[in-house]
Amino acid sequence: MDIKFSGSAVPKSGNLVLTVAAGAKLGSLGVEIDSQTDGQLKRAIAAAEFEAKRDSMLELIAPVGLKVDRLLLVGLGKPEDLGAYDLEKTGGAIAGRIGAASGRVALAVDDHEGFEMGGGRAAALLASGVKLRTYRFDKYKTKKKDEDKRLKALSVLTKSAAAARKAFAPLSGIADGVHLARDLVNEPANVLYPVEFAKRAKQLSKLGVKVEVLTEKDMEKLKMDALLGVGQGSVRDSRMVVMHWMGGKKGETPVAFIGKGVTFDTGGISLKPGAGMGDMKGDMGGAACVTGLMHALAARKAKANVIGIIGLAENMPDAAAQRPGDIVNSMSGQTIEILNTDAEGRLLLADVLWYAQDRFKPKFMVNLATLTGAILVALGKEYAGIFSNNDELAQRLTVSGEATGELVWRMPLSPAYDKMIDTPNADVKNVGGRYAGASTAAQFLQRFVNDVPWTHIDVAGTAMDSPKNEISQGWASGYGVRLLNHLVAEHYEG
Ligand code: BES
Ligand code: MN
Ligand code: ZN
After folding, report:
1. How confident is the model at residue 117 (pLDDT cuts 50, 70, 90)?
2. Catalytic one among 346, 429, 447, 482?
3. Within 3-117, where are the H helices?
4. Exposed end of the chain (fewer CB within 10 Å): N or C?
5. pTM higher than 0.85 for the full model?
6. What is the C-alpha separation between 454 and 353, in angstroms, rounded?
7. Of 4, 200, 272, 301, catalytic
């Protein structure tokens, strides 16, 4: 989508969207338009009792005195009340309302009093919302592309065009990261298998990210038997990808983000039921988020040292697949009894988490994983569950969640859950019984983090099959990119 910023003159054709502040307060462009229409604007506002409440809209077709075909008034509510995410949502709502308008579309962000962030930043955030909303995944449609139904170009009109352009650049990079994560989650598993995923991650090197790809041989040397076991029934080779973005001070300890990348999860020998199994192409939502995040951070040249690590494998039933009852080693040296091959994400993460803390000694680790159906039962699709050994990190994530709309809710870890994953046959088993499934999975992961401040985000409910909202309309939301970008920006830069 092509977004341009310029000064605020009344356009001569197409569609004009104009912001209006609470109480139907017009900015100076609104006043000018009202005079060009010989008062028709104010008359329509009065007749429709349009109060310009947040996201209320009023449409005037072919307004007399103007050359535009359509004038869409968009209520902002009180400009001083608007947070960043509010403006993005309004931008998204505008894009949704406009659809694939024929003719050019201009969004005039008027110079309302009380734009705390300044008109330039407000315009940039509205544009960011438009960009996020207009994402489509239609590359496999050979006939009618959904492309046809969406906005393709937007010119944003504002008195602070230069400031807006400058503020939009990083937001645009973040949106590209969200779109990358969405693309990866949406891709079917016959296209996106571990080697192909690694190839796409490698493309981040164009942005200055250093990308290492570890093959099965490399991982054998590291004794990552838990990860390798997950992929051993698949004809697709497993991979681990390590991404480095070193935008911070030289030598400063990095933070680390880790993602579960099961490119397809059949359950393995503990085969899942058929209904809905297609959704398991999204079982790499954690890895997609980490990759999208690294894109976002690099694109906006974040002043932070960040490591992203994703474990990639396909979980298939096969003559060579691991069996329930198998006992495997892990890089940490702990042995794991596998009682259900469908609890594979924690096996893969056990080795990636251990590797991350062992090699990088990071300030903290955050892992994301579509780990359990139990988190969906507990929290549904609006909140991701977080499990943390560190109150400060959990609190920061909660605040970032509120700020970005990518909500998290803290769930318990406890030594009591450890008892549920003890087994007489090995150091730990990979399932904990019927109750507290999301917590026993998290407790399992905690055995592989070795005291580093850490949070596990269970995104099984939020990364895929997502509810539609102002800025996300597709199956894959790209959940987590904006959340973690915010966390880094607020606490680990400059
Ligand atoms: N990938 C699934 C979890 C999942 C479920 C993600 C629904 C997205 C939507 C995970 O690998 C899994 O199968 N978990 C099992 C664990 C159980 C066997 C202990 C589950 O949740 O049923
Ligand atoms: Mn599974
Ligand atoms: Zn899985």
Report:
1. low
2. 346
3. 28-36, 40-47, 84-98
4. C
5. yes
6. 10
7. 272
